[in-house]
């Protein structure tokens, strides 16, 4: 029993043995086959990767954050509490169980969401190597099923899961070593934050919005997590996270997300305008675009596709009507937008249309005349 207790204490990195001899956490890990092999295979590679990024090896502080829907796990490093974290590497999470939302009971196959830390190093895991998380945390113990909240949540290898965060064996080799060296340097609580999505990925945001629009409780929970994500994006440092008596996360010193700066107003462009005193109402021959009517429609379609990215974010499809004059020399001029989108887009539309090729002018009594044309255009993202 005494030897078993000593092994457990050593695994947690809080015991020494022998006559006044202290064994470091890293040296203790070398006693196990898989961590020892990982050090042989990965240590030199990790040190070179740190050097290439200008990072000091080993990292004294580690921060891990995972994004469920996006299937990614990031490892951030720093060497003091005052130093902002820097991104070391992003790993691909190779399997996902459950759906978005927190874990609330045993057997729901949910990956937890929230704020945790590494509470266990398992060098003999059934899933190669694994890092245990302190689920259920204080919040989970209040909000999850009081009898069967679940447990045994790990970051591990073998690329299979029923509610954990799995990566490949080659990846867990690196993550396990990075965490072990940080613990060896004195970081007892390595934070692991699990978010439902990357909040800067619009596709992911749209999915989460759809999922939570009819669930106020889930929406409030995910919004709380987003606040911490925003804080870290602004500062690359972690806020103090607490839990109130209702199990809700509360934050100290949270940075405020600033609204985006206003978009600079587009300077008006001086468009081509001619002083045309005579316009023909009736002509013998209408102005002709190169390639005829079919060529003009193809030109408008190509132009519309080029302009689609300039539509405002909330506008997916626009029906625009323009008016212009084909002058006696065939030059299209005096463009006007009769039905448009907004001032900025309409101004850009005219600038593009003014690059239109020269036409064959309209003919009346054997002479070229100026003729006004109206045209509708559909522009779609």
What does this molecule look like?
With 381 residues, this protein is of the alpha+beta class. The chain folds into two domains: 55-252, L,D-transpeptidase catalytic domain-like, CATH 2.40.440.10; 292-380, TolA/TonB C-terminal domain (2-Layer Sandwich). It has nine helices and 15 strands. A hairpin with a 5-residue loop joins strand 11 and strand 12. The longest helix is centred in the N-terminal third of the chain and has 21 residues, at 33-53. The protein is elongated, with a radius of gyration of 32 Å. Mean pLDDT is 89; it is low at 1-20.
Provide keyphrases for this structure.
9 helices; disordered N terminus; alpha+beta; L,D-transpeptidase catalytic domain-like; eight-stranded mixed sheet; 381 residues; TolA/TonB C-terminal domain
SSE run:
HHHEEEEEHEEHEHHEEHEEHEEE
Question: Tell me, what's the shape?
Answer: elongated
Number of domains: 2
Hey, roughly how much beta strand do the residues contain?
15-25%
Number of helices: 9
User: How helical, in percent, are the residues?
Assistant: 25-40%
Radius of gyration (Å):
32 Å
Q: Please report the distance between the alpha carbons of the first and last residues.
A: 69 Å
Overall pLDDT, averaged?
89
CATH superfamily of the largest domain: L,D-transpeptidase catalytic domain-like
- CATH A-level architecture of the largest domain: Beta Barrel
Strand order in the sheet with the most strands: 3-2-1-8-4-5-6-7
List low-pLDDT spans: 1-20
Structural class: alpha+beta
Largest sheet: 8 strands, mixed
Number of strands: 15
CATH topology of the largest domain: the name is L,D-transpeptidase catalytic domain-like
């Amino acid at each position: 029993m005494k030897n078993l207790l000593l092994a457990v204490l050593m695994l947690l990195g809080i015991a020494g043995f022998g006559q006044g001899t202290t064994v470091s956490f890293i040296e203790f890990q070398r006693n196990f086959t898989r961590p020892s092999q990982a050090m042989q295979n990965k240590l030199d590679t990790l040190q070179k990767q740190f050097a290439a990024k200008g990072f000091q090896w080993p990292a004294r502080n580690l921060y891990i954050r995972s994004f469920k829907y996006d299937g990614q796990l990031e490892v951030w490093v720093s060497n003091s509490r005052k130093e902002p974290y820097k991104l070391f590497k992003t790993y691909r999470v190779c399997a996902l169980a459950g759906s978005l939302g927190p874990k609330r009971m045993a057997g729901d196959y949910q990956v937890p969401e929230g704020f945790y830390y590494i509470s266990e190093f398992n060098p003999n895991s059934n899933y190669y190597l694994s890092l245990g998380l302190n689920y259920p945390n204080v919040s989970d113990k209040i909000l999850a099923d009081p009898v069967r909240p679940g447990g045994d949540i790990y970051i591990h290898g073998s690329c299979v899961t029923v509610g954990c965060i799995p990566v490949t064996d080659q990846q867990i080799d690196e993550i396990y070593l990075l965490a072990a060296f940080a613990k060896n340097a004195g970081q007892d609580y390595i934070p692991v934050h699990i978010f439902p999505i990357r909040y800067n990925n619009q596709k992911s945001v749209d999915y989460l919005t759809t999922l939570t629009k009819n669930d106020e409780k889930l929406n409030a929970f995910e919004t709380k997590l987003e606040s911490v994500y925003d804080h870290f994006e602004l500062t690359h440092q972690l806020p103090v996270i607490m839990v109130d008596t209702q199990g809700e996360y509360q934050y100290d010193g949270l940075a405020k997300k600033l609204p985006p700066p206003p978009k600079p107003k587009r300077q008006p462009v001086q468009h081509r305008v001619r002083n045309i005193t005579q316009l023909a109402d009736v002509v013998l021959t209408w102005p002709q675009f190169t390639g005829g009517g079919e060529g003009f429609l193809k030109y408008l379609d190509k132009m519309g596709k080029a302009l689609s990215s300039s539509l405002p974010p909330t506008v997916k499809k626009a029906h625009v009507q323009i008016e212009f004059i084909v002058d006696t020399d065939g030059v299209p001029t005096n463009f006007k937008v009769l039905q448009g989108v907004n001032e900025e887009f309409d101004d850009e539309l005219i600038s593009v249309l003014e690059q239109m090729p020269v036409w064959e002018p309209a003919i009346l009594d054997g002479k070229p005349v100026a003729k006004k044309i109206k045209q509708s255009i559909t522009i779609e993202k």
